[in-house]
């Protein structure tokens, strides 16, 4: 699109030639953030900077504007949309990496995976040694080609990354115009910025074309969160639907040389001193590792004292783990609905009768991950399970990295509210304590490193938009209020 270039020239001079100013109808959304992001305003304070975008190029340009703005998204914007309007596939990223004769354009993901198989490469090398062909190829050349794959991968990864990544800037609202608004295969990232709203959007994470395997057959290190926050503050993500593909269905890993290729990273991952975030009224569906809050020990110093999150009114719909996983911060887990098929072996309680298997899905592992030094306030939440172990509560929590009794994690279960599992009251205090006891007994946690108590846990000091005291109320509220409008 030639006008994209014209607009780029405009951007340097503070003009907004290519962007459409929007003053049409707006979605009916409450403009009152709450929880830890209550002080955020997004782009609302600048009524003279309201834009509408429907292409990736326009979205990227609008997102870069160095002042307070609101960007409405009209329809579906595809992360693989090239400037000429055509859609890239994985081979496109390879074919456009570097210059025309770049060696890295010989990258081939199948060969990259095959090259990890030492039995296979030994056979190729033996054929080369013997001056024979291998699978109809010149074995000497093939061996050489296999040996370069790992080195070429980062350069083709960079091509996909720059295509599908959309960087937000300070003081921005990004809002879907209606339920057709979607960022399809886009990695929205917030890096060292402040004051952002992301609302009323389908947020579909990009499938990583070239993920790196970890342990055979199914552990992968894929890139591209649907939304990623690094060292960012005052962020409100509300009324969005986060998922693996536009249809909302789970993406079954593909098989390649015995590997089950999982091309998805987190849906909402936050790290490195991020603070004051409210994640509310979202639907998180059909995903494996959904919300990672706290990037790990290496970030402890930057996270401790920060990482305040309000997780309110969300629907975790077949989200197999990390709902969320929590490290180092303070987490208010209130009024969320968890619906899922529980086919995972109970950890410490008697199993109920095994039922028929459900549809292909990510295999459920756990909901609330209490990790290193986190403070988790659990209010009324509703758990609705089907599957072989629908009444098992042993995986509502998990405990990990619990090694420091002198700096314990805390699970504070609100005594004024009642969570439910399939409509029955569930004693979350008891379940949390039983989980801790189980991990201690297994030698996977140190006694005293997770305390199930509200002693020493400060009140959030804010009010939620609505206080729901029972799981039943939560279920109704979430079904009525989560997701796009
Ligand atoms: C508001 O938007 C205009 C563009 O319409 C921009 O020039 C101005 O700097 C913005 N104001 C603030 C406070 O960001
Ligand atoms: C949204 O896009 C459709 C075409 O896909 C167009 O007809 C409509 O005018 C656009 N709306 C706005 C507000 O830009
Ligand atoms: C990648 O390698 C596989 C296995 O040799 C082959 O089938 C496929 O055609 C190759 N892809 C390209 C684009 O060359
Ligand atoms: C590795 O390659 C050998 C030889 O082609 C094959 O028999 C084996 O199944 C492969 N291993 C895996 C884990 O795919
Ligand atoms: C295989 O390729 C190498 C390097 O290009 C070449 O020296 C050799 O002659 C080839 N072998 C056969 C059998 O064609
Ligand atoms: C964001 O907006 C606030 C309030 O309008 C302003 O004080 C601040 O400087 C802005 N930040 C940036 C980086 O423009
Ligand atoms: C955002 O604002 C902060 C100050 O609040 C500033 O340090 C940072 O550079 C800004 N980031 C961008 C991307 O403009
Ligand atoms: C986070 O919000 C609290 C008030 O709830 C405020 O005291 C603190 O300064 C905020 N932190 C950042 C980094 O904005
Ligand atoms: C927990 O965090 C502390 C830093 O506060 C670190 O020293 C320790 O290794 C972490 N423990 C685990 C098991 O990751």
From TrEMBL:
Name all Pectate lyase domain ranges: 132-354
Gene Ontology molecular functions: pectate lyase activity
Q: Where in the cell is it found?
A: Secreted
Q: Which domain of life is it from?
A: Eukaryota
Recorded hits in Pfam families, A to Z, give: Pectate_lyase_4
Q: Which GO terms describe its cellular component?
A: extracellular region
Q: What InterPro entries does the record point to?
A: Pec_lyase (IPR002022), Pectin_lyas_fold (IPR012334), Pectin_lyase_fold/virulence (IPR011050), PEL (IPR045032)
Q: Which residues form the signal peptide?
A: 1-18
Task: For this entry, list what GO says about its biological process.
Answer: polysaccharide catabolic process
Task: For this UniProt record, give its keywords in alphabetical order, as a comma-separated list.
Answer: Carbohydrate metabolism, Lyase, Polysaccharide degradation, Secreted, Signal
The family annotation for this protein states: Belongs to the polysaccharide lyase 1 family.
Q: What name goes with this protein?
A: Polysaccharide lyase family 1 protein
Natural source organism: Schizophyllum amplum
């Amino acid at each position: 699109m030639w006008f994209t270039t014209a607009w780029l020239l405009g951007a340097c001079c503070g003009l907004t030639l290519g962007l459409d100013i929007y003053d049409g109808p707006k979605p009916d959304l409450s403009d009152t953030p709450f929880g830890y992001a209550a002080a955020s305003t997004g782009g609302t304070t600048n009524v003279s900077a309201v834009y509408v975008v429907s292409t990736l190029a326009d979205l990227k340009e609008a997102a870069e504007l160095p002042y307070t703005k609101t960007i409405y998204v009209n329809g579906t914007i595809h992360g693989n949309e090239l400037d000429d309007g055509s859609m890239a596939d994985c081979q496109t990223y390879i074919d456009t990496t570097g210059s025309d004769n770049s060696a890295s354009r010989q990258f081939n993901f199948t060969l990259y995976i095959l090259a990890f198989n030492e039995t296979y490469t030994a056979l190729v090398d033996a054929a080369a040694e013997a001056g024979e062909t291998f699978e109809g190829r010149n074995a000497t050349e093939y061996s050489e080609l296999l040996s370069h794959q790992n080195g070429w991968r980062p350069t083709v990864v960079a091509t996909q990354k720059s295509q599908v990544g959309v960087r937000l800037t300070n003081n921005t609202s990004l809002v879907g115009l209606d339920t057709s608004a979607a960022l399809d295969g886009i990695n929205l990232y917030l890096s060292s910025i402040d004051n952002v709203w992301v609302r009323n959007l389908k947020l579909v994470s990009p499938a990583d074309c070239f993920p790196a395997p970890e342990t055979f057959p199914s552990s992968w290190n894929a890139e591209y969160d649907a939304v990623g926050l690094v060292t960012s503050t005052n962020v409100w993500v509300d009324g969005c639907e986060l998922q693996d593909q536009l249809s909302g269905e789970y993406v079954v890993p593909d098989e390649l040389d015995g590997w089950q290729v999982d091309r998805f990273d987190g849906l909402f991952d936050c790290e490195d001193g991020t603070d004051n975030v409210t994640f509310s009224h979202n639907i998180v569906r059909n995903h494996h590792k959904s919300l990672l809050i706290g990037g790990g020990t290496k970030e402890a110093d930057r996270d401790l004292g920060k990482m305040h999150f309000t997780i309110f009114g969300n629907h975790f719909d077949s989200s197999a783990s990390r709902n969320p996983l929590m490290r180092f911060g303070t987490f208010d887990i209130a009024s969320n609905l968890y619906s899922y098929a529980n086919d995972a072996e109970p950890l410490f309680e008697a199993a109920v009768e095994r039922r028929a298997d459900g549809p292909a899905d990510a295999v459920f592992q756990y909901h609330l991950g209490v990790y290193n030094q986190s403070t988790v306030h659990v209010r009324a939440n509703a758990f609705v399970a089907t599957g072989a172990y629908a009444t098992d509560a042993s995986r509502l929590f998990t405990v990990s990295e619990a090694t420091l009794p002198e700096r314990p994690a805390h699970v504070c279960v609100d005594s004024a509210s009642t969570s439910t599992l399939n409509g029955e009251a569930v004693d979350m205090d008891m379940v949390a304590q039983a989980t801790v006891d189980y991990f201690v007994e297994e030698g996977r946690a140190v006694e005293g490193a997770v305390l199930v108590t509200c002693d020493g846990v400060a009140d959030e000091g804010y009010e939620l938009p609505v206080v729901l005291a029972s799981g039943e109320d939560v279920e109704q509220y979430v079904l009525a209020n989560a997701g796009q409008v």
